[in-house]
Write a structure and sequence with these properties.
Structural class: alpha+beta
CATH topology of the largest domain: Rossmann fold
CATH superfamily of the largest domain: ABC-type transport auxiliary lipoprotein component
Strand order of the largest sheet: 7-13-10-11-12-9-8
Number of helices: 9
Order of helices and strands: HHHEEHEHEEEHHEEEEEEHEH
Helix content: 25-40%
Distance between the termini: 144 Å
Radius of gyration: 37 Å
Shape: globular
């Protein structure tokens, strides 16, 4: 009996140990393939970053701009700056240039905000022409404008006695206008902007305010406006000779003109090029005038510059053959090419 109980005890212990080992045995690390690989392959086909996603969204949102009647579309790309200069210079100059294009009333303007915000690293380098041309073409733009700040400085001003008189700010901008269709640079100018004031803030503000006039002159130089002669306003007699002193033109505030703007007066003739057999227009400068009054959106009064010298010839032209006269807007300041020779 005791032997049987002892046998039963040993068998019970044996099977208990065997059962515990089986329960605690580690499971195999081998597992069936999951679908994670296929999921990752699908994810890899999506944009690699948030920036890429944003880029796709922006491209999908781009819609062509409808040009106003008689106006070409120009896009203003966000201006950039050289390293070492505050990006605020680029933003402020870009704002002023955009305002200058809008005030010129010459174009339908695509604002810089339509391009979205540019990457931080792109703010401090000149733009890639081919890249911005592609985007501008989607807006339907004829031209795109870019600018890059190459220098900015504010210093003190002193008189001849060494006494402090204020501050002066100078800003240099590499300015370009690019033909979107051909990708050719139509205008490239190094603009030097200057302003002064009693404080650094007023000095910088003065420099920014000068951009409006500079922009209008650049536009006038490369995209000249011609206005037809309308009527004689006034003439006077000097030394028994009648002279033209004032006249009207078919051009006004709708064309961006304002009092104080200068116009140049040309005689235009057509000649045949014997090599190409094509007619070309030649113009001869015969006088200039200052816009003294904007009469309406489409008319303005001009006062002849130095009428005693040029008034008689101008009167003969407008009285006899006004159709050969071209009156061109040349910007807010008197053009040196002509005025220095007088």
């Amino acid at each position: 009996m005791k032997k049987n109980l002892l046998l039963i005890f040993f068998l019970t212990c044996f099977y208990s140990i065997l059962f515990c080992q089986t329960k605690t045995k580690p499971k195999s690390t081998t597992s069936k393939p999951t679908k994670s690989k296929s999921i990752s392959s699908k994810i890899s086909k999506k944009p690699n970053s948030f920036v890429e996603v944003a880029k796709i969204e922006v491209e999908e949102e781009i819609t062509p701009v409808i040009a106003e009647p008689g106006k070409e579309i120009v896009a203003i790309y966000p201006f950039t700056t050289s390293r070492g200069y505050d990006y605020e210079y680029a933003q402020s100059v870009g704002n002023a240039v955009e305002a200058g294009f809008v005030k010129s009333s010459r174009f339908t303007v695509v604002e810089r905000t339509r391009f979205g915000s540019i990457k931080t690293e792109e703010r401090f380098q000149e733009v890639n022409t081919s890249s911005i041309v592609k985007v501008a073409s989607k807006f339907g733009a004829k031209y795109i404008v870019s600018g890059h700040i190459t220098g900015a400085n504010t210093g003190e001003l002193h008189d001849s006695q060494g006494k402090f008189t204020g501050y002066q700010t100078s800003i240099s901008v590499a300015f370009k206008i690019i033909d979107v269709e051909t990708s050719q640079i139509k205008v490239t100018e190094n603009l030097n902007l200057a302003g002064s004031g009693g404080s650094t803030a007023s000095s910088v503000g003065s420099a920014y305010s000068s951009i409006d006039g500079v922009t209008r002159r650049v536009i006038a130089s490369y995209f000249p406006q011609r206005f037809p002669f309308m009527a004689i306003v006034a003439k006077e007699t000097k030394k028994k000779e009648e002279q033209l002193t004032a006249f009207k033109i078919w051009g006004g505030s709708d064309h961006g003109l304002k009092a104080g703007d200068m116009v140049e007066i040309y005689v235009v003739t057509e000649v045949m090029n014997p090599a190409t057999k094509k007619k070309i227009s030649e113009k001869q400068l015969v006088g200039a005038a200052e816009i003294s009054q904007i009469n309406s959106g489409t008319t303005a009064t001009c006062t002849v510059f130095k009428p005693r010298k040029y008034g008689k010839a101008l009167l003969d032209l407008v009285s006899g053959t006004p159709e050969i006269i071209a009156i061109e807007y040349t910007g807010g300041q008197r053009p040196k090419s002509f005025w220095d020779s007088l």
